[in-house]
């Protein structure tokens, strides 16, 4: 697959990146270089290779999965303009 200038322009627009018209050919070349590298990676045989999270073996830190209230109710409610009985109080909008 090859990226042309129109495709590079569209990708920049989708990414919401302003790219000057004279910089589009260079951007298209960079996209093509990245795609070429991805094609090289797809040729590598990874059969039987374990996925890894780091180059050195290590066990990831884990914590107990417990549901808590966060113990921050008072600090959150102190910013509310109106709080009653531990909840935000808002005007009634439905009759």
UniProtKB/TrEMBL annotation:
Coiled coil: none annotated. GO terms for molecular function: asparaginyl-tRNA synthase (glutamine-hydrolyzing) activity; ATP binding; glutaminyl-tRNA synthase (glutamine-hydrolyzing) activity; transferase activity. One of its GO terms (biological process) is translation. It holds the Pfam family GatC. The keyword Transport does not apply. Belongs to the GatC family. This is Aspartyl/glutamyl-tRNA(Asn/Gln) amidotransferase subunit C.
